[in-house]
Design a protein that fits this description.
- The structure is a homotrimer.
- By secondary structure, the first copy, chain A, is an all-alpha fold.
- Chain A has one domain.
- Chains in contact: A-B, A-C, B-C.
- At the A-B interface, α2 and α7 of A face α2 and α4 of B.
């Protein structure tokens, strides 16, 4: 299956994807170090966290082989981040809490918006493009947690996937309203990032069923 | 890849799929509530339990994008079931044991038969179509259990996947014997449902290796 | 997507694949017996361990439906191995440690090399073909461990995936240097096998980050 329309913005997508890949790979590699995994474990978790969500999206929309398998720059970026963490862990581990949360929130926004945009390019309907944006944003972290035999973050209380879905919704609405793609993307990324940061700061959570 | 023959029965497949989706989504959402997950966790488990098996089947037979990604009615049905459980949990949690087991057994039979029929439509050979029927039936529940970091039901003692495989076998044999598709489907669903219900009632299990 | 060049060696690939399938299926089935799973659990783990890696590779390179879904000989081989373990477990469980390690190392080498070769046949670039060789070698065992809710072997210390990647690298370099495919394959399999055996014997591990 080929994209049915001119890509929303090919170069933008590539830059966004590679920056998000680097950020998420750093995060996956750091998690691997915390779990005392060896060099290969660090590489595997960097790759899975950074590229897992996009691979699942690409398989589902029919963009096969997925970008991360067709284009060496994706895995190279992920492994570069793994090397940074492996060699510089003494420094990486001293990065304080808030910059880490901010980097992760930025990666989440970038991936969610890029994921929804690519789904639209492949003719997926808007409602499902939003879902695929969410999958792209949280998929890699979910695979990371599954590999570590833990219940994934996305299922535990916290506004994380919700921020990704909201950002993707803004992008899709923007495109429907004929906003310029760069503007719609920026609004989506900004919304996702802001909601995530405020939610962490305010300890916001989604509601649970009360009457158990 | 396109279906190689006229679909066994397109409308039947759609109705079966949506009913099975609703039943399995109810079940996934209830499991999420038992694990005290939030609203998004309930939606994720409803989606994964209801649509995971069919998505895996569709990717493997080359029906890409999978139905659940192409057709908004599938995720909408799953999320509707999630909303029913979220809003009406006080009532849903009072449904007694046997109706729940019966609903789940019905969903299992519907999915196994629909899965095997779709695989046949795509030119998969009969032996593998039976396996894909089994995957469609138990795949969603398996993904649900993996997300909850539990050993999936399908691996634990109980006649569950076996009922799905038997139902799929009946359908495939029926089609080979030139039975009308609606008849072969009904026989397959009925067999799967009955075997599952009797197995739960009688505590039947498959044999294990004895001489350990 | 079709292979872009003449397959490196079709018959060799088939024989390698079926032998590797049998070996890995024996291993998955034995693991199932150790976890006291029933007959169906034994079949599922035999199938997943033996065919999971190749299915993931085939989906990622666009060889859909995957061989294991198109060709009944693959699942039949896996289920035959499951039957051997189920019926003959008294004997299978007495096979000593080293032959088991050697069989597994042979399977690893065969799968890694066959995986990288098939990726090259489908026009994947050499760096990514090596990664896909690694995925083919360790993917099945990883899925087996995920189903058992355990952190997969590939993430725990041990030279396992590293041996698969080295073997795949030898094959890909050999093909680039215009060696005969059979020679490049043999060198790759031999290297992977030898590194794995020596690593187990000498308790070699990959480095971890020290300054935590």
């Amino acid at each position: 299956m080929k994209p049915v329309s001119k890509p929303v913005s090919t170069t933008l997508l590539l830059s966004i994807d590679l920056f998000g890949t680097f950020v998420f790979a750093l995060q996956g590699a750091s998690t691997a170090v915390q779990h005392e995994l060896d060099l290969l474990g660090i590489m595997v978790l960097a790759f899975a966290t950074a590229l897992g969500g996009g691979i699942v999206r690409d398989v589902l929309i029919g963009a096969i082989p997925p970008n991360s398998i067709k284009d060496w720059r994706y895995p190279a970026t992920a492994f570069f981040a793994a090397a940074v963490v492996f060699l510089g862990h003494a420094y990486v581990s001293q990065i304080p809490y808030w910059p880490l949360i901010a980097l992760d929130a930025a990666g989440l926004g970038l991936f969610a918006i890029a994921g929804a945009a690519k789904a639209l390019d492949f003719g997926i309907n808007p409602f499902l493009a939003i879902l695929l944006g969410g999958v792209t944003g949280v998929g890699g972290g979910t695979i990371r947690d599954i590999l570590l035999a833990q219940v994934p973050n996305v299922l535990r209380a916290d506004i994380y996937a919700a921020a990704a879905l909201l950002g993707a919704t803004i992008l899709v609405l923007g495109i429907q309203l004929k906003l310029r793609p760069a503007l719609a993307s920026t609004l989506g990324i900004f919304t996702c990032f802001t909601l995530r940061m405020v939610a962490v700061h305010q300890h916001w959570n989604l509601p649970k069923v009360l009457n158990r």
